[in-house]
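DM from R.C. (forwarded with permission)

"hey, sorry to bug you on a friday — could you get me a structure for this? deadline for the figure draft is monday and I only need the backbone to look sensible"
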Amino acid sequence: MTDTTAELWSWVDAEPEHVAEVPAGATVTAVVVARNAESWLRDALRSLSALTTRPGTVVAVDNGSEDATADILAAAVGTSIDEVVHGQATWGFGEAVAAAL
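My reply, with the result:
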């Protein structure tokens, strides 16, 4: 590594100045956004199910899929995911996440 590159990455080994405290009872909500995701969605849901520590809630958003995505998500409710939100094909990622939360 050059000296310049080493300087750019020097923050990696630094101790954080402040570590936020996590409130008691706080949970993580994972959001899966999918559109025409039939080719990869089953693998992603299997990976979620295999996590050692699961998020508190997993919400999936189907952004107007035209393939079997909606059916795959519906079948996964209660196992890999907790809820499905039916979005619109015109939604971007941010709109889908906002609808899930």
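R.C.: lifesaver. DSSP finds four helices and three strands in the chain.
me: no worries. Helices lie at 3-8, 38-49, 69-76, 93-100.
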